[in-house]
């Protein structure tokens, strides 16, 4: 049987940008790999051999428009070494698929319903018995998927963990109402032209923080501007508001230093249209089973205030707070891979994500309450056995010297 971990063939290029350091792989995990379609999505199900299987299935929610291998380092290697059968997919919209006006983010939910049912069937066929627990975990728009599945399809899952889930809600601040502000104000604040006055820069800073960015995270804004802000607005703007002409333009790397065209998106005039488009896919907060949320306080794409905290408010309004915990990770980023470019005191979040999975297991399987919602500044505060976490490897530990 092949080794199911990345130690055998190495990580996929789509997986490496999501982690600061690969998790420890302590042993090979022999087993069977199924590859194929789950509806419109490309799917992947890894099944450890019978002796190594823990009797459980973990479904992975992939971020952004990445492929079905993108969670291999963030979650897959860890899940497999813990004995999980592990299933994931590309949500049906990899790469630039969302540029096609016939495709949409609404496909994601259906893809994950199909994937989960398929994976549960494969598990039962392969092992001769069904999984006795099924969990789901994901990051960013994969975190949105975790929330959506726990809200709409809780009968399929025993619980979920999400990291920096994107909040899509018609009445809350979201990416298309924040990104144009950042792209308009940041070049002024950073004085890209070289002639901005102190008053102009202060006013720009006020706009950035009013639109959700924590001022303490300003050391990371340049990285986010180049890596995330422009391409995110262009891609999701095209999906949700294709009638606005600039969103129909082909991608241009020129926008990375001159984002004016996209920054002029008149989001305030188009709030009603956006609300109509988002309503069918919106999070509701109506949980019926456990969900643990992990989010960095310095996330400069999915700001804590407008996504993690706002989702907790939805859960509270739905009367479902007993099923939810929110863990704010002090100085945590959106994805840890960015820390390789610009560490600047930022904290690696992956160990908290891994530890949250174990807290979820204990909550569901033994009735052990997880930590109360709150802010955590060290993994020792949060994890029961931090030395046993696979995502705290030598590279991550040694990095503290660079802070």
Q: Helical stretch count? A: 13
Distance between the first and last residues' Cα: 42 Å
Indicate the CATH class of the largest domain. Alpha Beta
Strand order across the largest sheet: 1-2-4-3-5-6-7-8-9
Give me the Rg, rounded.
21 Å
Average pLDDT for all residues? 94
Question: Main sheet?
Answer: 9 strands, mixed
* Unreliably modeled segments: 393-403
Query: Which fold name is given in CATH as the topology of the largest domain?
Result: Rossmann fold
- The CATH architecture of the largest domain would be 3-Layer(aba) Sandwich
Record field, number of beta strands: 9
CATH homologous superfamily (4th level) name of the largest domain: Alpha/Beta hydrolase fold, catalytic domain
- Beta-strand proportion: 5-15%
C-alpha geometry: globular
Number of domains: 2
Q: Tell me the helix content.
A: 25-40%
Secondary-structure content class: alpha/beta
Note the run of SSEs as H and E.
HEEEHEHEHEHHHHHEHEHEHH
Helix and strand arrangement:
Elements: H1 6-9, E1 31-38, E2 41-48, E3 56-61, H2 72-81, E4 85-89, H3 107-127, E5 133-139, H4 141-152, E6 159-163, H5 175-189, H6 198-210, H7 221-240, H8 260-263, H9 271-278, E7 291-296, H10 308-317, E8 324-329, H11 350-366, E9 374-376, H12 379-382, H13 394-398
Helix pairs in contact: 5-6, 5-7
